[in-house]
């Protein structure tokens, strides 16, 4: 039997002080990154993109390769609209339950699909379910990826059937500079997610916040900028 990536999930306390796995980027500037997992979806991803465009907000989409293969036009639109596309494996696997070779294939298959438009400035990976292991961290380092999760206080849990108002209240009440906010644009009825986004974006603008991609957020943070962009630490 091939070795699994890890039999035990690493916790945030195991990583945040010793390895650049990103949960958020606290800063003085009023910048935040809104992220969407599990797409693209032909209905809801397009609706999300419409709302983002209306409010001149940028986002990062962590896409599942098999869906990206089915809907390349959405990936092209995400890139054309100035958003960022990250890797979320090919079939949304649990990295704690597969071999390292299987995980590598999943990442590489997705990479070939989403990066046809050109090599990104920073390759981003978000593990499904937020699971992390030391072998995953090592693999990401070898493949020049950065692992991006989300702010603990900004997991909207939109997959659990929450209402739009509840999600909007959570995001706006807990808002901090440098937050990385988690939504999903696929995997079920994402109408509440779209509605929440319509509530949130005008309020963010009123408060002076700017929605940027994860890469832009990290570039504005002195430590992450050094780690990820400046030689000899960067790509």
UniProtKB/TrEMBL annotation:
InterPro entries: Glyco_hydro/deAcase_b/a-brl, NODB_dom, Polysacc_deacetylase_ArnD. One of its GO terms (molecular function) is hydrolase activity, acting on carbon-nitrogen (but not peptide) bonds. SUPFAM superfamilies: Glycoside hydrolase/deacetylase. Residues 30-212 form the NodB homology domain. Pfam families: Polysacc_deac_1 (PF01522). One of its GO terms (cellular component) is membrane. GO terms for biological process: carbohydrate metabolic process. Keywords: Hydrolase, Metal-binding. The keyword Metal-binding applies. CDD domains: CE4_NodB_like_6s_7s. This is Polysaccharide deacetylase family sporulation protein PdaB.
